[in-house]
Write a structure and sequence with these properties.
2 domains, 9-stranded mixed β-sheet, 29% strand, globular, binds N-(5'-phosphopyridoxyl)-D-alanine
Length: 285
Amino acid sequence: MTRTVYVNGEYMPETEATVSIFDRGFLFADGVYEVTSVIGGKLLDFDGHAVRLQRSLDELEMKNPISKEDLLEVHRELVRTNEIEEGLVYLQITRGAADRDFAYPGDDVEPTIVLFTQAKPGLANSPKAKEGMKVISIEDQRWGRRDIKTVQLLYPSMGKMAAKAAGADDAWMVEDGHVTEGTSNNAYIVKGNTIVTRQLSNDILHGITRAAVLRFAKEAQMNVEERAFTLQEAQAADEAFITSASTFVMPVVEIDGQAVGTGAPGSVAARLREIYLDESLKTAI
Ligand code: PDD
């Protein structure tokens, strides 16, 4: 099926959608993005994604070409038109097309905005949630502003390929002996009754799923510690898991070939996945 996509104010078939070769997203990775999940034809955590989008734009002094209300309408229209029951809406805004120059162009250059959908049937009932994921560790070689959700994703792509080559599902990145995050997700361990995940700073992306999961964990009287942890601590933990808009809560059962806990998905991750999906669906729009 040819999808309908949204480019600079217009809906069109994906086959007709184009962006300039001078677009700064293409030339400088001068752009930001968001991924919002869809379950039952509804958007999860739309508000959180819209707030983070604005923050990313502000940090880069980039104009926002669309109001929050209109952005929601575009998301909904694409979900409707493309009949997405389970899947994702991808949104990207770049600084626009201008002659190649490292300095930002003037105010007359309009940002580029693109949205498209990806159907992912079975997203909520992914078999991986029952099997668990294997991760490898790699050095974190990304830039220092990982809190801004930019489209410079080459190092995470390289990490994914290294994981694939090692027969694993993903890579956890390590800096100064401590885990920062996964290539496209936040990382957690569980020891006893305590969930540990790295504190917010410029070192990691401030995950929207992370915020929701930590809120639900606290409401369910679980202990949460926001601090950095080492790879060795993770390997010796009772459980490990990740969160993101595209995986929700997903157990990690192996780190660098070493089983975590029993080597099977743990009960804390399973419970948090269930709570996250139940609670987020209640507020999905
Ligand atoms: N990735 N950390 C990184 C580096 C990420 O790229 C992501 C999201 C997350 C989790 O954030 P959230 O819970 O808001 O999805 C953490 C998206 C899903 C992606 O790039 O496809």
